[in-house]
Sequence to fold (237 residues):
Amino acid sequence: MIQIDSKKIKEIMFSLGADLCGIADAGRFADAPEGYHPTDVLPGCRSVISFGCRFPASTLLCKTPIPYTRVRNSITAKMDAIALDFCIEMEKYEIVSVPIPTNESQWDKKTGRYRSIISLKHAAEAGGLGTIGRHSLLITPEFGSMIWLGAVLCDTEFEPDEQKEKICNDCGLCVESCPVNALENREMDQQTCWNYAFGDDEEIQTWRIICHKCRDICPYNLGSKNKFVNNNSKMER
Fold:
């Protein structure tokens, strides 16, 4: 069997289009909800490969929600394709790996919440990509919260990355900006947020995302690689 290490794992992930990649061992998921641990998906999982792709920050400037909505839909397909191609590549090294869907959730009746089969943002935090902010979004040093996440489970142990120090300073701006008070408690009111932000626009007859105020207001929403000037409006804090 051809040997492969953490460095090679990242080279492959970057070659497929990822902008960030980090590795966590399965032991970092001890606090996962019942039924949503990596080994609940892949028995024998030893490593979780987390990756991220930058989300165009310019979409935050638009007066219409359509660009942000369409980019979100398109990048979901991109993330799933990267995860699938990565798993196919891993089979060349005789490594068992499973892609985690980027935007697919199921109802967890134990907690009354929708969940991915493993939490992508917690996987990213465990893999050292960034830390989860007060608004419940992952914040990375490079791209702030303008990042979309994917993950792959592997049955092989790879050297894990160091986890980041906390980035969010709990300033509370996201809590104050939420039009439906979905961030009043530490655990986001998921359904209230979704009911307000996502849905059909009867006037223009299309599904759209109308709210990302918590992302807009965050002092760390852009990161070090997303700062630029657009139409004389600086998108930086």
